[in-house]
Amino acid sequence: MTSATTDSRDTTAPVAYPPGESFAATANADAALYDLAAADRLAFWAEQARRLHWAQPWTRVLDWSAAPVANWFVGGKLNVAYNCVDRHVLDGHGDQIAIHWEGEPGDSRDITYGELRDEVSRAANYLTELGLRAGDRVAIYMPMVPEAIVSMLACARLGLTHSVVFAGFSPTALRQRVDDAGARLVITTDGQWRRGTAAPLKAAVDEALGGVHATVEHVLVVRRTNVDVPWTEGRDLWWHDTVTDASPEHEAQPFDAEHPLFILYTSGTTGKPKGILHTSGGYLTQAAYTHHNVFDHKAGQDVYWCTADIGWVTGHSYIVYGPLANRATQVVYEGTPNAPDEHRHFQIIEKYGVSIYYTAPTLVRTFMKWGRQIPDAHDLSSLRLLGSVGEPINPEAWRWYREVIGGNRTPIVDTWWQTETGAIMISPLPGVTATKPGAATAALPGISAKVVDDDGTELDRGAAGLLVLDQPWPSMLRGIWGDPQRFRETYWDRFAGDGWYFAGDGAKLDDDGDLWVLGRVDDVMNVSGHRISTAEVESALVGHSAVAEAAVVGASDATTGQAIVAFVILTAGAANTGDALVAELKSAVSQEISPIARPREIHIVPELPKTRSGKIMRRLLRDVAEGRELGDTSTLVDPRVFEAIARG
Ligand code: 6R9
């Protein structure tokens, strides 16, 4: 093997790993899928949609006449929750375990498909009793407890549109999302476990809603940590007093293929998060198709584990909808990888015999930092496939992942996709594709991607450009909630003449024609696989009375991929207390957005480098943030330093 490299953009030294013969012999995918999709793309997707149970068949696969809003499986009707739960029970798999749930403090619960159906039905009955009707929005602000998944499925069953808000988000961020979606109900827990301590969560909901709220009628609370909770009589309801007592009999009604399934907020280039809207039939089709082929998932045999949180799209598509539609048996883990110690993930893999493990590069790099003696202390031989998502995986981490976790035998699928795409778009097919450290390799059968320059001209191999999707796909976003204009501007105006979707990522094809995703080309940072906009952090900083102006950049970081580095100018009269002020500003950002948005560094500077038109020169700041130790910030304000950097 060639020497490992830490540069994810080094496309010169990769070694390809052809599929193993025995893996290929039983693989779900085969090379013919590419030919089938190329011969008739829509017929191919129609075939994939037949994985699902449709109460009424569609009359047309795709109507693209209202582009960029797609209409897939026109006239078809289905119930998403029925597809994820009931039909497996009716097919005789009610006793199969759907979820091996592992709580952070060490408690655990196995939930069969039969039990899941009963719980989802109880929740659906109670939400109906509360007066919720198809089309209403429900905010779900919960840690990784089974009731979070039950809540999502109960919404899907009733045609309620859920908006899951990551439980690490602040009350301000929750409020923004609840308001934007006009939610009638918030489902939460009393508290959440984080490395052995119970942190309050219901209290954050109260803070977010503040007294009487325009649209929220009720807050439904699951007891998890037993912390004391503030309580508003009449508005607040305990899950165990209501849902638990509801009837487990509920008949699911079918909804239109284009019925809104969920809204999920993601960061854009401005301070205001975008509510990405997904619908039912096309979304579930592509989630199920990709989960089957990309993870080579075999129902009744595999034990699957996706380590994401349901607060992100990966949790939606690859914990809830894709795996459950495919009758997976999966691990759902509540806590962090180092609770109570760094062995936790490997103990879980061993305990349940996990065979498919899907995680983010940032965690692989963290494992590397902890050292191989930790995974080496465990029997990981049940693993047969590894996945990566969220950010480019650097070849060194890829190789370590394959060798140390995968015992040099497992294929690695590096899956590129976005909240907006709904499901995986670019990935190797295990058993078919020769994988290559750092490369997402190729668009999946049925998906079309190109690497183009600013004018939309397709680039030759070796040249870096912009990633575009030039054909609609079933799980594509159907819009930004309440903002059709922003939807067009953000994704479609850049290549309006061609009708292409602009992903916001840079990419290149290498000499073999394999695709490498190079990271964001806009003002969106990627910290540990989480998208955070520079504008959002800047606005949190200037929200502090001491800050007059702020500029934020993502600087490369060995563990988190990128880290947030901020440069701030203080208001006249603000006392520069140095480290104390920096610490205060960091926690202000954590509180305003989330701890994941906490800057790694904040530099207090007398001025910011600007162009003549007044635009902050972020590129220069990024060079500074990445290129030198900034212990002494006084050098920063010296214009000669900037001149020197600009020349270099
Ligand atoms: C699924 C998810 C999307 C952004 C995307 C890109 C980055 C995700 C990647 C990847 C390189 C991969 N990204 N997967 N970059 N290789 N395999 O992460 O959705 O949170 O919306 O982030 O993440 O920059 O544009 P989301």
UniProtKB/TrEMBL annotation:
Residues that bear N6-acetyllysine: 615
Residues in Acetyl-coenzyme A synthetase N-terminal domain copies: 32-84
Cofactor(s) demanded: Mg(2+)
Residue ranges of every copy of the AMP-dependent synthetase/ligase domain listed in the record: 90-481
Keyword set, alphabetical order: Acetylation, ATP-binding, Ligase, Magnesium, Metal-binding, Nucleotide-binding
Amino-acid positions noted as binding ATP in the UniProt annotation, renumbered to this chain: 390-392, 414-419, 505, 520, 531
Binding site for CoA: 194-197, 314, 338, 528
PROSITE patterns assigned: AMP_BINDING
Highest taxon of the lineage: Bacteria
EC number from the UniProt entry: 6.2.1.1
InterPro entries attached to this UniProt entry: Ac_CoA_lig (IPR011904), ACAS_N (IPR032387), AMP-bd_C (IPR025110), AMP-binding_CS (IPR020845), AMP-dep_synth/lig_dom (IPR000873)
Keyword Aminoacyl-tRNA synthetase assigned: no
Ligand binding (Mg(2+)): 542, 544, 547
GO terms for MF: acetate-CoA ligase activity
Reaction(s) the record says it catalyses: acetate + ATP + CoA = acetyl-CoA + AMP + diphosphate
All residue ranges annotated as the AMP-binding enzyme C-terminal domain in the record: 536-615
EC class of the enzyme, as a word: ligase
PANTHER family: ACETYL-COENZYME A SYNTHETASE, ACETYL-COENZYME A SYNTHETASE 1
Family: Belongs to the ATP-dependent AMP-binding enzyme family.
Protein known as: Acetyl-coenzyme A synthetase
Organism: Nocardia iowensis
Gene that this polypeptide is encoded by: acs
